Amino acid sequence: xxxxxxxxxxxxxxxxxxxxxxxxxxxxxxxxxxxxxxxxxxxxxxxxxxxxxxxxxxxxxxxxxxxxxxxxxxxxxxxxxxxxxxxxxxxxxxxxxxxxxxxxxxxxxxxxxxxxxxxxxxxxxxxxxxxxxxxxxxxxxxxxxxxxxxxxxxxxxxxxxxxxxxxxxxxxxxxxxxxxxxxxxxxxxxxxxxxxxxxxxxxxxxxxxxxxxxxxxxxxxxxxxxxxxxxxxxxxxxxxxxxxxxxxxxxxxxxxxxxxxxxxxxxxxxxxxxxxxxxxxxxxxxxxxxxxxxxxxxxxxxxxxxxxxxxxxxxxxxxxxxxxxxxxxxxxxxxxxxxxxxxxxxxxxxxxxxxxxxxxxxxxxxxxxxxxxxxxxxxxxxxxxxxxxxxxxxxxxxxxxxxxxxxxxxxxxxxxxxxxxxxxxxxxxxxxxxxxxxxxxxxxxxxxxxxxxxxxxxxxxxxxxxxxxxxxxxxxxxxxxxxxxxxxxxxxxxxxxxxxxxxxxxxxxxxxxxxxxxxxxxxxxxxxxxxxxxxxxxxxxxxxxxxxxxx
Length: 551
Prior knowledge:
- It is found in: Membrane.
- It is a single chain.
- This protein has helices at about 1-40, 45, 50-55, 85, 95-105, 105-115, 115-125, 130-140, 145-155, 155-160, 165-175, 185-195, 225-235, 255-260, 300-325, 330-340, 375-380, 395-400, 410-425, 445-450, 480-485, 510-525, 535-540; strands at about 60-65, 80, 180, 200-205, 210-215, 215-225, 240-250, 265-270, 345, 365, 385-390, 405, 425-430, 440, 455-465, 490-495, 530.
- By secondary structure, the protein is of the alpha/beta class.
- The strands form 5 sheets. The protein has a 6-stranded parallel β-sheet with strand order 1-8-7-2-3-4, with helices on both faces. A 5-stranded mixed β-sheet has the order 9-16-15-10-13, with helices on both faces. The protein has a two-stranded antiparallel sheet with strand order 5-6.
- Helix 5 runs parallel beside helix 8, helix 7 (about 115-125) packs antiparallel against helix 8 and helix 9 packs across helix 12 (about 185-195).
- The N and C termini lie far apart (about 65 Å).
């Protein structure tokens, strides 16, 4: 009986000792770095003995990025910037490794990375090369390069854009003639974003070692050097010199060693100015319209710990919430859903007109945010309304509480199907053909406008805080489960009234004109921007295919 009572005390004592040792190790490591930095000779001594370096590095001086002179912001030469410390407001690398582990790997890999964080923290998450190697090994070991590339193209750009530093981007990076980005993280994580979104001419960072297994290749998780990239950025003999270098006060030692000696002037971005330097959405280098992945938040260590603790409860809540929509009648599922944390708001619903001589049903033209859009519409109407779908998993189709009809993308057959369903009653359609998470509306297919004159636009919008309920490259059958696993999922359903007769085919308009008018009306109601992008554009960017599954 003594051993079970003593064991928790021993474990607690051991953990406390480890915590104190880790803090002491980290404090001494920083003190050693500061002493070395103070005792370090002038930048010219750290550069290879070549005339070009000595002359330029002799004029190097460190300044605060908050006091950038107009001459430096003029953009007359080359700028070299620390990607994860200066260009981005967040100086931590752990959230981006976690995104790769979770989205490109699995839930288990993400849990292992979270368990490794105490070791990463002890080694110095922001400055330590050993910490970066540990995160790289846990994240990439056994991962296929294609999966990592998919995350780099479809998931990471959203989080990078949200973390862009407005001061550094607008005053130093954007005006420069030549742009070079340096990163201590594996180059595969940020190179696509830096080149495609920020127009970087060169990206310098460690490469990941790969091994061939049969016909496929996998990462080993081991980091290699960056000699080839350094030649691309600074010249084959290392003689090229940048006009401006931008680092963070928390930049990695490797970044400092590579970046500082090659720059005439070095600007240091302090952490104190991080909160006020966020780049507004309307100033993004490219509009953020499409992105993939399940996580709806930046996965810091604290956020991921809370996520894993909530996940079992979230799965239970998801099962309960789905069954509320399947089992309970419409009159009481409002109350039941509210009890279990679903926020549902509806407006603009009018009393249905008398049938009279109406021979066809009403066509509800909806925006498309998640796969449960038609279910939320029927809940607001308090009656089942069949829905047209382009792609729906067999599981979602089997458990759906309403009738779903698949479209074939054959215009003649789809038109015949819609006409037949409208003769039977009301019908719901999402003419975008696919979901969009951001405040944009994709191009509306004009087919619905050519078949019905009695139409009513319905603005639907969904909000989540933990998991997105849509995916382009993942398992679609998990979409409803993921949406309802959020702590407080919310839905807005707004009925905008019937389309005026002068804006229908009966009023002399073409199908394209009617579709564009309905799109603009829905965009104004939701505050969304209308685009001409299509389902094909989305899937080509996020999944590398046209979004059509061959039978």
